[in-house]
Design brief:
The complex is a heterodimer of chains A (384) and B (134). Chain A is of the alpha+beta class. Chain A contains nine helices and twelve strands. Classes of the chains: A alpha+beta (384), B mainly alpha (134). At the A-B interface, α2, α3, α4 and α5 of A face α1, α2, α3 and α4 of B.
């Protein structure tokens, strides 16, 4: 009768803490980058900014969110190799003595949480960037909450393993001090070879998606979710059809309402075109990591707010013509509304906006997540 | 070092509990999430790991000595890339109303990467077998 596998059955000397620690160091760095850039993105998407989110540099969010997706993707091969090196530990027999049994159990629980949260973060992030949502939960809230679980479990893991990590990283990679007794059979590659292989696979992974945010890498990024092409040379996240924008909504009856208390004005397309036109070069940077530089022309938001005598520094409620969806209403924080580069854009690359880019008018502000760059604008409202 | 470890562990527990509290307190579809968390680990521990073990036992053992190391390197690079490319290869999120989404020929990209890996593995194996003989 076959017995369950035991850790002693795994004999490769590549499955060693010396390899685990070296790959794990870079995995930890990738997780750290993804966590920090993720917090930035989450905060940027909040309506309420007790601490002002900066409007400069205009490419800030493009950079941090591109980095978020690249770091997460680069972590995939590192996580797989690292888990391979520690797989035998899954079959370690629990200790007999009660105190050690409890400690072992606690550590296993923390590892289970770490592995589950890590796989979940990488898998759900990868699926989300390809706009594949085979789940019932809210992606943004869940990916954010599980990120805290993952980073917490990672800190606990590092704390528990710190002596081994130190020993492994400061001694020779061939050292066997922390190896299991049966891990003695040479592998197909050397230990150094396996670590380098993990780094190579990680680099290939990063290159395969980085072109979504880094234009000169587009040709080599064979798995980027966007080629960078689209109407007027810019990709689209949500089409007019998906947002249920009709011809009537954007036809002659179109008006942009600007409201501040009792002061209100209603502008036609022609009214908007008659106002002072500004041209700004601002990237559109999607929360899914892709981004594109673009040149927008339109009316300064501050000029519009001045029409209704709205004071500076006030948050602006921004409404879209789209009948439903979580981004029908967004908040444009006061510092973004007052920034001279923030426009109600009417044109992209010198041509009137394509319907899928928000015809007749869309918001474009520097250093802002793409989902908040509201398209098919209907109303700007400053609360009195 | 003990102080650092205790502090780090405590910080980790607080961060993890905060994440757990966020999940439980905000009316999430917790069962759906729990299913995803468990399925992810199960797929890795019981499916992917076993497949890799089997490949090692069946395929790697039969390869000529000079080809073993290059094959392992090629497998890790191509295998992990294939895994995270599943959503784009399947184009599961594609939408008829938005041609700018998932607009690359991902299979051509995958075949190019696979061809590069195969050529590199073959070249490295050839060079290693020559070196061994001399």
């Amino acid at each position: 009768m076959p017995r369950p596998p035991s850790d002693a059955d795994f004999t490769s000397r590549l499955r060693s803490a010396a390899v685990t620690a070296r790959v794990g160091l870079w995995l930890g760095i990738c997780f750290g980058i993804a966590f920090v850039t993720g917090l930035i993105s989450h905060y940027a998407q909040n309506a309420d900014h007790p601490l002002l989110f900066p409007t400069s540099p205009s490419w800030g969010y493009r950079f941090t969110q591109g980095l978020h997706v690249v770091a997460g993707t680069a972590a995939v091969p590192l996580l797989l190799v690292k888990l391979w090196t520690v797989y035998p530990r899954l079959f370690l027999r629990p200790p007999r003595e009660l105190r050690r049994l409890v400690l072992d159990g606690l550590e296993r629980v923390s590892i289970a949480v770490l592995v589950a949260a890590s796989i979940f973060q990488l898998a759900s992030g990868t699926l989300n960037s390809a706009q594949w949502y085979p789940w019932a939960f809210s992606f943004r809230a869940t990916h954010y909450a599980v990120a805290w679980v993952a980073i917490g479990a990672l800190l606990v893991h590092i704390a528990v393993k710190l002596p081994i990590i130190r020993r492994a990283l400061t001694s020779d990679i061939e050292s066997t001090v922390d190896d299991r007794p049966t891990a003695t059979v040479p592998g197909a590659v050397s230990r150094r070879g396996l670590v380098r292989t993990a780094f190579l696979a990680s680099g290939v992974a990063a290159l395969a998606v980085a072109g979504g945010a880094v234009p000169f890498l587009r040709k080599v990024s064979v798995f980027a979710v966007r080629s960078g092409e689209g109407p007027q040379g810019v990709p689209v996240n949500k089409s007019a059809a998906a947002a249920r924008i009709t011809d009537e909504m954007v036809g002659p009856a179109y008006r942009l309402e600007v409201v501040y208390g009792d002061h209100r004005t209603s502008l036609t397309r022609a009214d908007l075109q008659e106002m002072a036109q500004r041209t700004e070069s601002l990237p559109i940077a999607c929360v899914e990591g892709w981004s594109a530089g673009a040149v927008w022309t339109g009316v300064r938001v501050r000029d519009l707010l001045d029409l209704v005598d709205a004071p500076t520094g006030r948050d602006v409620d921004v409404y879209s013509l789209q009948p439903s969806g979580p981004y029908r209403h967004t908040v444009l924080q006061g510092n973004f509304a007052d920034d001279t580069r923030t426009l109600v854009a009417l044109a992209l690359h010198g041509e009137p906006l394509n319907r899928d880019h928000g015809e007749p008018a869309r918001l474009i502000a520097p250093d802002r997540p793409g989902v908040l760059q509201t398209k098919w604008l209907s109303r700007l409202e400053v609360s009195a | 070092m003990t102080g650092t470890r205790v502090g780090m562990g405590a910080l980790g527990v607080v961060a993890g509990l905060y994440g757990g509290w966020l999940l439980l307190s905000r009316g999430h579809d917790f069962l759906d999430l729990a299913e995803w968390l468990v399925v992810g680990v199960a797929l890795h521990d019981a499916v992917l790991s076993v497949v890799v073990l089997a490949l090692g036992a069946v395929v790697l053992r039969r390869l000529p000595r000079a080809a073993k190391a290059p094959a392992v390197v090629g497998f890790v690079v191509l295998g992990s890339a294939t895994l995270f490319a599943v959503p784009v290869l399947g184009r599961f999120g594609a939408r008829a109303d938005n041609p700018s989404l998932l607009d690359r020929n991902y299979w051509a990209g995958w075949l190019t990467l696979a061809a590069l890996v195969v050529v590199a593995v073959a070249l490295a194996s050839f060079v290693r077998s020559r070196r061994r003989r001399t």
